[in-house]
Amino acid sequence: MFEERLENVLKEMKIRQMPQLVISDPMTIFYLTGTMIEAGERLAALILKEDKKHVAIINQLFPIQEAEIGMPIIKVDDTDEGKGMAILAEQLNQEQLIAVDKQWSAEFLLSLMKKVNKEVSQFVLSSDITDDVRAIKSEDEKQKMRDVSIDNDTAVGRLADLVPEKLTELAMTEKLIDIYKELGNSGVSFDPIVAYGANGADPHHMNDDSLVKVGDSIIIDIGGVKNGYCSDMTRTFFYKEVSEKNRDVYETVLEANKRAIAKVKPGVTFAEIDAAARDYITEKGYGEYFTHRTGHFIGMECHEAGDVSGANHKEVKVGNIFSIEPGIYIPGEVGVRIEDLVIATEDGCENLNHYPKELRVLG
């Protein structure tokens, strides 16, 4: 598995004419080697080379063996990271492009730039190499995403069943931790959101001690982690009754969600999928209240590189997994969001979430 992933990265490097790539992102290192190194302020990086003479530069604090990551390791001293960067620089061909992957602290990058030959060395950000490889999920990854999403369907249902008990938003999320544990999830994939009434008009509301009131919308946006993969789903309910205006808001978001999902297939751009949802919400008169992109990529991390937005003109590829989550947020009044995860298939997509989306009044 890891050999195949590494080969896929090397193929992308060749296509993009990047002869060497420095990778420091812990999750990308884990994806390529199966070894997680949370290095923090210490040095840990892979250098991938087109000639396959890869090497890892790792602080000696981490007891990692070459057999674990499949390439030679050079250990550096904890008290002299400057020397470590000099060693890293020596492993690079300074007359070739030096591609750097993802977020790397200025402390490390600037230090490396000082160690190379400034007259010939050229750096370029090339996160899209590993991002694009990670964005095409294998069959094993797809199954893990199905499994964790099934659990999330169950978790949403169990939280919805608790609403009549009139728990605070915070108490609801505390219950969720126990639910995920019972389902065999190792934790949450992001800080869960339970938002009552006007609180739901903030898409990233921080849960508080609010109690649900008659007529409130109830946004439940949650995700767990199982076998290293993340789930993410949102459902919106109403408590005891729903006004005609709020019913219209809900039905508008639901139709936008369905239209965007129906648009998904290989060759369609993510901007076109975003437009399918956004244009309908605008047509219905709520355009100013749809304040975020339509979706994001997901996998080992809840938010991976790639999104469903008007700015993303890349085409959908088979194996992409991403969210479709249009919403309407009217300040001081109501919030509605409906989110599903989909896998792009040869002729459309597979929806990973099966919990019902039709309007439901609880209590």
From TrEMBL:
Signal peptide: none annotated. This is Aminopeptidase YpdF (MP-, MA-, MS-, AP-, NP-specific). Gene3D superfamilies: Creatinase/methionine aminopeptidase superfamily, Creatinase/prolidase N-terminal domain. Transmembrane segments: none annotated. Residues 144-346 form the Peptidase M24 domain. SUPFAM superfamilies: Creatinase/aminopeptidase, Creatinase/prolidase N-terminal domain. One of its GO terms (molecular function) is aminopeptidase activity. It comes from Vagococcus fluvialis bH819. Residues 5-136 form the Creatinase N-terminal domain. Keywords: Aminopeptidase, Hydrolase, Protease. InterPro entries: Creatin/AminoP/Spt16_N (IPR029149), Creatinase/aminopeptidase-like (IPR036005), Creatinase_N (IPR000587), Pept_M24 (IPR000994), Peptidase_M24B (IPR050659). The keyword Protease applies. Pfam families: Creatinase_N, Peptidase_M24. It comes from the Bacteria.
